[in-house]
Amino acid sequence: MGDYTDFNYSEVFEKFNGKNILIIGDVMIDTYLIGKVDRISPEAPVPICDVERKEYKLGGASNVAISIKELGAVPLIFSTIGDDDIGKIFMDLLEKNDMYKEGIVKSKIRKTTNKMRIIGNNCQMLRVDEETKEFLDISSYLEMIKKLEIIIKKIKIDGIIFEDYDKGIINRVLIDRIIDMCKGIPIYVDPKYKNFNLYHDIRLFKPNLNEFKDGLKLDWGNDGIDEVVKRNCKILHEERNIEKIMVTMADRGMFVSVKDGESFHLKTKPRNIVDVSGAGDAVIALATLMDIEGCDISYTSFISNIAGGLVCEEIGVVPVNKYKTLREVDFVN
């Protein structure tokens, strides 16, 4: 790993304050049932978790929004939820966290995504998902676009994040409409599989390695992962006019590529990984703000990689902790 510590990250972080970031995508609730396991069920050979507490957290695109807020910027979430009990919990959490609520559309024909995790003895035992994956209905789509048009005319938008979890909020029509509406505003994408090949004319594209492989239907073959990733990044740069690409690779670090520029593999330090949930959210949030401030991709990827690693050391989905991230810089090299 190179020496990326000769940079004043603290000074850049201060400049995040007040930046307005649109976040468009799939929001959800992460529910945690937390307790102890000390016996096996007499009904089936499965452990019994005696639940001691229940926690609700903002997840998906709304977890990215929480990280943006923790970093000092202003997140403006645009999404659709169900008109249901989980949707009410979602809106209550936005209120509790003093988050922008006017971009949320309530639909009577969708359910709010709820990922329920059962945690026993500090280990995840089971995850149960309640969700709708169909594409957004036309009525909700038009209402969300109307809200977006209003906010874009009303305030200065510094950046836009597509946070795609394949739950149906984002589709080809929405992608093309936003890109056309927001010319001149940098767009950042955290993709999933379904819409992977629909993004174009964007500033930064941040898939993880599995999304990159499956989205492009790649076979690593005998060339090695880095060579295949590098070759296909060049194709994305040219064919879809994507300026920067950051492919996160879990414990292998991150592969970074710039159109008409450099490409490199940024390694990461070994960590005590507890839960990988939310790592990608942390990376896209910090990478977006660093890039908006004009930081070189080397510094952007370095600090974003640290932020993603740190959230993996905690159980459950957590936002970026900017103070912990800044402290970590001094101990990496």
Main attributes?
27% strand, 333 residues, alpha/beta, 4-stranded mixed β-sheet, 9-stranded mixed β-sheet, UDP-N-acetylmuramoyl-L-alanine:D-glutamate ligase
Question: Would you kindly provide a written description of the structure presented here, covering whatever features stand out?
Answer:
It is a single chain. With 333 residues, the chain is an alpha/beta fold. The protein is globular. The chain has helices spanning 9-14, 61-70, 85-96, 138-154, 172-181, 209-215, 225-240, 279-292, 297-311, 322-332; strands at residues 20-25, 27-40, 47-60, 74-82, 104-107, 114-120, 123-130, 159-163, 187-190, 202-205, 242-248, 254-258, 263-266. The mean pLDDT is 92. The protein has a nine-stranded mixed beta sheet, with helices on both faces. A four-stranded mixed beta sheet has the order 3-2-6-7. The chain is built from ten helices and 13 strands. The protein has a single domain (9-332), classed as UDP-N-acetylmuramoyl-L-alanine:D-glutamate ligase, CATH 3.40.1190.
Short overview:
By secondary structure, the protein is α/β, with parallel strands linked by helices. The protein has helices spanning 9-14, 61-70, 85-96, 138-154, 172-181, 209-215, 225-240, 279-292, 297-311, 322-332, and strands at 20-25, 27-40, 47-60, 74-82, 104-107, 114-120, 123-130, 159-163, 187-190, 202-205, 242-248, 254-258, 263-266.
Strand order of the largest sheet: 5-4-1-8-9-10-11-12-13
The string of secondary-structure elements, in order, is: HEEEHEHEEEHEHEEHHEEEHHH
Category from helices, strands and their pairing: alpha/beta
For the record, the CATH architecture stands as 3-Layer(aba) Sandwich
Principal-axis shape:
globular
